[in-house]
Known about the structure:
It is a single chain. The protein is about 65% helix and about 10% strand. It is elongated and about 95 Å long. The protein is of the alpha/beta class and about 425 residues long. The two termini are about 25 Å apart.
Amino acid sequence: MLKGFGTFLLKELKELMRDPKILLPMIVVPLVMFPVLGGVVGYAMQAAQEQAIKAALVVVNNDCGNWSNTFINFLQGLSAMGFNLTIYTESNIKPLSEKVLELLSKYNTTQILEIPDGFSQNITIHFNNPNVRAYVRLYSVLRGTSVFENIGSSAVDALIGMFNRQHAPDILYSEKATVIKGEVKYGVDPMAVSGLLMYQSIVLPMMVLLLISYAPQIAAASMAVEKEEKTLETLLTLPIDRLAILWGKLLSSIIVAAIGAVVYTAGYSYTLGSVMAGTPARLNVDLAALGLVPSTLGYLLLGLSLFVTIVSVLALSVILAAFAEDVRGAQALVGNIYPMIFLPSIALIYLDINTLPLAFKLVLFAIPFSHPMIASKAIIVGDLWTVTLGIIYVSAFTLVVMYAASKLFATEKILTAKIKFKGLKKRKGVSAEES
């Protein structure tokens, strides 16, 4: 056994746990961040489930036969099974395709279930000829890119399955139509579309997250190395404008970040194109034909949104690094930015910002680092104004941060600035004296 190992290990643990630069980003921040993140995901799941259970469904009866009435009675009786499903009925609307948008607006719903002409006749024939089946057509509105977007369509499929179990296996099946940007797309399964959109909603935010979380460490380390090796004092004595030093560090990091933004955006575009190339053969869904593939302008705005966000993160990282004594301290201080990066990124994977309460929506819009994630979803549905306004907001935030950084470099505080945790250091000193 190593002599004195236990005592030395305890000493090292005490020193590390008393260091606020380690305690805050590694222990305190995760204790706050992960419960908040869990609450966001839980809220998204609960909201989606409640929306599916408490949905309003417009049933258009174009058959008006005995079996169509039986099916409507079945839907209306679901309240006894715990489904708080509001049923609105309409009859003999032909052709329904011309009235879909009007009915959706009239009843403020996102789903219409059509019972077509011949429904009752086909069910009656089915008992003698199982090859003949009846169908209903579900019209669903594609509202956003949340990973829970397809819960409503899945719930209707489950209801059809319950009806089949009550009467006869496979007596009824569903045809799907999806309302996308105000147009009815027949033969398009909303579950297939939302599944592909879910892929986009996960992959791009994760790529953005990696880039934004990596770039600040470069800028912070560059600044901290200068202070740790005392070369910053030498630089400040040279006949060079101090702002030139600041802008040199920022622009070098910005150039690297810009290259990263271009590479990540191009990589995402290539990956998405590869996935879309195989989509029609497997799922009979062509997102490009449905208008759900970002345009060239959308990609350019996404790249710009990512770029200005990275610039703001870099400028803020340089300011924080100026208050650190060494590289480790700078990285720890920059680590305190990460909750503002990680929380919006992961939350927006599960949530569609357009369906959130106003207060929650304003919080996400107010966080500058959330705008690339918002942009990644907005360009899919062609909402370029949201992306443009986000770029303007983040650019204004960046200018404010860079102005603060320039003021810091213009004074001697750049050499002496430190963030001190007096309470913790005092307790550390008292403990050292007692020992």
